[in-house]
Amino acid sequence: MQALQTAATGMAAQELSVQVIANNIANMQTTGYKKQTAAFQDLIYQHIRRVGAQSSDQGTILPIGIDIGGGVKTVGTPRSMTQGTLSQTGNDLDLAITGEGFFKIQMPDGTFQYTRDGTFQMDNQGRIVNAQGNLVQPAITIPQNSSGLTVNPQGQVSVTLPGSTTSTIIGQIGLTRFINKAGLLPVGNNLYQDTPSSGPPQDGLANAEGYGSITQGSLEQANVDVVSEMSNMIAAQRAYEMNAKVISAADQMLQTTSALFR
User: What family does this belong to (predicted)?
Assistant: First the structure.
């Protein structure tokens, strides 16, 4: 009975949906995390009576047909790149982006990855790095014994050098944007890689046209809405249970049919 296979595809789809929801909830406190949703499409149909077909020699047309669907399939887990709320931390090297753009990070192999997580630190050479010790681009080194570290909304990094009473700009943190942010590939550690779907990276400056601004002493929180995720989880659970009941009903019908031939 085809209903068994059709309902099985529904159970598999809802299981994946719950997996996506679980990952969103698990990352509700992850800095810069962007939530995902599961997207589905119906499978190919078996056309037993095709709508619009001629039903008589006089040219009568069928107004409706008989189409049996094959179930559902997952087509993607698109990521919502909406802005998360900013949380003040007071740390000089905690940076948050408001608007478009990603921080650019240089990996040990020389390639670049991108993040919305502005939890930065200084390494043993005074360079600004992310939590894994990879360089924030363009590379900036904080002079030894300097004070008064500030990062303005344009990303300019300034410090007060020893023996001076005025601040000096020592570098500028850039931002990178993409035509299709949802096409970025998540690789873990709050990092993304560009792909052919995202389009090539477009490096620029904060507060320039098309780019967001940088806020010092703050971090962007995950854009996960816990109430919405819980509601989606309940809906997925109920859909899973209903598909399981379809399989149970179809199995009972097959048992009844089998008993007729005993």
Answer: Belongs to the flagella basal body rod proteins family.
